[in-house]
């Protein structure tokens, strides 16, 4: 009898600790170049223009170019629709209910459930995934008493439009060498979809509440990590995702610290920092490809570097404290999130309508 295998949204081929022992294909090399140049250009442009929230301009290109190997009208529509929805939610809902915990929590539950439902169905996975990351970051920033919601919203719009333009430019300069195969269509029982949406929505909402109640304003990486490990949408994938996220964060923080020691007093020179970011992202993108292009350790290291460089590295501030704090907070966040995922998994599996059924060769026929 064949051993049941769980079909996850991402095809896994290795990890940072045990990467696949193979050379990159020509298409994967081109994708690495797109991710590295896209993130570095987004970061550099935001700093040259003096725009706030450099994390948006650095991380968004990583998401669009890293998670999706192609660019077409459907991908662009998803990305722009996500930017419009998240912008409207933060501008209207946060503006109306930001100081009212109960209405705000209800609104967050509804938008989270919608995003995870899009991810569970598969066809609009990018819309839901980027929406969850963008919404988490914006709600985090909006919790600052000194934050300007209008500035936050406009920065998100600018970053989204710039990301689309950068993605087009990168695909024009570094096009794929050969046509890519279409991703397989994932079929799921209705109980699995309900299980995934309820589990991910509940855990993401708990994360939002905890970060708001404890006023953890300096823990952006920890909050984003608590969302990223939910991307597999189930307990079986979340455990591996949590481990990879912790490994990726550790690597990203250590590389960030290494660059800080290398640059020393030259960290205020933009071109030096941009080159350091490009080298780091190019390295992490290679591991990202070896892992199969999913939200693994390589991708976690990339986003960690994006947050550190985009938000915390300035001529007046170095990365030492922030990098050390990032790893500690992310480790705690990932562990607690994983406990919540397991608890919800056990609870939902007690009911037939929300029981997660592991696909087997027999029931896939």
Characterize the structure shown.
It is a single chain. By secondary structure, the chain is mostly helical. It is globular. The two termini are 15 Å apart. The N terminus is likely disordered.
Q: Give the class from helix and strand content and strand pairing.
A: mainly alpha
Pick out the low-confidence regions: 1-17
- Write the H/E string, N to C: HHHHHHHHHHHH
**Largest beta-sheet details:** none
Binned, the helix content reads 55-70%
Supply Rg. Answer: 20 Å
Distance between the termini: 15 Å
Rounded mean pLDDT is 81
Instruction: Bin the strand percentage.
Output: under 5%
Number of helices: 12
Beta-strand segment tally: 0
Please tell me what the overall shape is: globular
Q: Brief overview, please?
A:
This protein has about 375 residues and is an all-alpha fold. About 70% of the residues lie in helices and about 0% in strands. Helix 1 packs antiparallel against helix 10, helix 7 packs across helix 12 (about 320-350) and helix 9 packs antiparallel against helix 10.
SSE topology:
Layout: H1 26-49, H2 54-67, H3 73-97, H4 101-121, H5 125-142, H6 149-173, H7 190-213, H8 220-228, H9 235-263, H10 270-290, H11 297-312, H12 320-348
Helix pairs in contact: 1-2, 1-6, 1-10, 2-5, 2-6, 2-11, 3-4, 3-5, 3-6, 4-5, 4-7, 5-6, 5-8, 7-12, 8-12, 9-10, 9-11, 9-12, 10-11
């Amino acid at each position: 009898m064949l051993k049941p295998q769980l079909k996850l949204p991402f095809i896994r081929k290795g990890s940072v600790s045990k990467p696949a022992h193979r050379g990159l294909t020509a298409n994967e090399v081109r994708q690495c170049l797109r991710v590295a140049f896209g993130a570095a250009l987004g970061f550099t442009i935001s700093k040259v223009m003096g725009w706030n929230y450099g994390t948006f301009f650095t991380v968004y290109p990583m998401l669009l170019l890293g998670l999706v190997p192609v660019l077409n009208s459907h991908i662009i529509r998803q990305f722009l629709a996500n930017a419009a929805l998240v912008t409207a939610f933060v501008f209207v809902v946060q503006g109306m209910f930001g100081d009212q915990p109960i209405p705000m929590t209800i609104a967050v539950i509804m938008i989270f459930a919608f995003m995870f439902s899009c991810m569970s169905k598969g066809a609009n996975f990018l819309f839901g995934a980027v929406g969850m990351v963008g919404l988490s970051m914006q709600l985090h920033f909006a919790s600052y008493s000194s934050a300007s919601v209008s500035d936050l919203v406009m920065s998100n719009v600018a970053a989204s439009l710039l990301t689309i333009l950068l993605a087009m430019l990168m695909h024009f300069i570094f096009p794929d060498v050969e046509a890519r195969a279409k991703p397989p269509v994932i079929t799921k029982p209705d109980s699995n979809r309900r299980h995934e949406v309820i589990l991910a929505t509940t855990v993401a909402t708990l994360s939002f509440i905890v970060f708001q109640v404890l006023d953890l304003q300096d823990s952006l990486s920890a909050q984003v990590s608590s969302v990223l490990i939910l991307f597999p949408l189930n307990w079986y994938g979340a455990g591996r995702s949590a481990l990879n996220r912790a490994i990726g964060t550790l690597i990203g923080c250590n590389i960030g610290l290494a660059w800080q020691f290398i640059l020393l007093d030259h960290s205020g020179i933009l071109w030096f920092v941009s080159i350091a970011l490009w080298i780091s992202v190019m390295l992490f993108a290679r591991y990202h490809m070896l892992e199969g292009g999913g939200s693994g350790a390589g991708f976690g290291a990339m986003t960690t570097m994006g947050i550190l460089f985009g938000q915390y590295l300035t001529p007046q501030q170095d990365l030492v404290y922030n990098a050390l704090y990032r790893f500690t907070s992310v480790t705690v966040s990932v562990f607690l999130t994983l406990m919540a995922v397991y608890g919800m998994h056990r609870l939902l599996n007690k009911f037939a309508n929300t029981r997660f059924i592991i696909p087997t060769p027999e029931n896939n026929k």
